[in-house]
Design a protein that fits this description.
Radius of gyration: 12 Å
Largest sheet: 2 strands, parallel
Structural class: alpha+beta
Strand order of the largest sheet: 1-2
Distance between the termini: 20 Å
DNA sequence: CGCTTGACACCGT
DNA sequence: AACGGTGCCAAGC
């Protein structure tokens, strides 16, 4: 089981309307490979299966998943789930954060 | 086996 | 507060 696989599983456990950070994921996995987690999501062999958009930076930013682009359509989807994203930053980030 | 990359985190300026 | 540089770890070549 690669670290990435574990990451996918964790993300899969995130309830709807909640988000998490790379750091929290790492802690839960007993690893500090925050970057490796990003690698896994970036490759994301199972895109629709894993809600990678629910994983954000520790400072409440969406990261580079697509927040820098204008086509933030998925961000709109997040809004629908109750997660507000303004210019790549999560609104009420601490409240929506899921700490496993 | 070692070097490079990356959707991060942390600290300093 | 914002920007930049540095450190960490796993995966791929």
């Amino acid at each position: 089981m690669k670290l990435a696989q574990k990451v996918y599983s964790l993300i899969n456990k995130i309830p709807k309307g909640k988000i998490t950070t790379y750091k929290e994921l790492g802690k839960r996995l007993k690893t500090k490979a925050y970057r490796a987690i990003g690698q896994a999501l970036k490759k994301n062999p199972n895109a629709p299966q894993v809600p990678c958009h629910r994983v954000v930076c520790s400072d409440g930013k969406v990261g580079g998943y697509q927040g820098k682009k204008n086509n933030s359509k998925k961000i709109g989807l997040l809004k629908k789930e109750g997660i507000i994203v303004e210019k790549g930053k999560i609104k009420d980030f601490e409240k929506k954060l899921y700490r496993f």
